[in-house]
């Protein structure tokens, strides 16, 4: 399993999208992150952008999402993954290591 290193107290911006070149790619993936929530922008019913906190986000093919997060308390390892168990078992999971540096 790949382990991605991140530093505590530094803002992170992640671009999430499905692989547009994969014929096997599902049209959507429920992306889930453990331990630390993230912020995502969405349009409210009036067209105004609002920033919301989530720990799971549906990633739709052809519609990339940017999320923001900051690790302020937790140090150590946790995972992020697709919440479809078959996809997780096929490698759509990653370990993240948060350090004080």
UniProtKB/TrEMBL annotation:
Protein keywords: Metal-binding
Gene Ontology molecular-function annotations: copper ion binding; oxidoreductase activity
Entry-linked Gene3D superfamilies: Cupredoxins - blue copper proteins (2.60.40.420)
Domain annotation Plastocyanin-like: ranges: 22-99
Segments crossing the lipid bilayer: none
Coiled coil region boundaries: none
NADP is among the record's keywords: no
InterPro entries tied to this protein: Cu-oxidase_C (IPR011706), Cu_oxidase_CS (IPR033138), Cu_oxidase_Cu_BS (IPR002355), Cupredoxin (IPR008972)
Matches recorded under Pfam families: Cu-oxidase_2
Superkingdom of source: Bacteria
Name by which UniProt lists this protein: Plastocyanin-like domain-containing protein
């Amino acid at each position: 399993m790949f382990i991605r290193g991140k530093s505590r107290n530094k803002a992170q911006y992640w671009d999430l999208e499905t692989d547009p070149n994969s014929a096997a790619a599902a049209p959507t993936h429920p992306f889930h992150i453990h331990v630390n929530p993230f912020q995502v922008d969405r349009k409210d019913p009036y067209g105004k952008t609002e920033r919301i906190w989530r720990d799971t986000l549906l990633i739709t093919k052809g519609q990339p999402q940017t999320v923001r997060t900051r690790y302020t308390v937790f140090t150590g390892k946790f995972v992020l993954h697709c919440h479809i168990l078959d996809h997780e078992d096929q490698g759509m999971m990653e370990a993240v290591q948060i350090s004080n540096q």
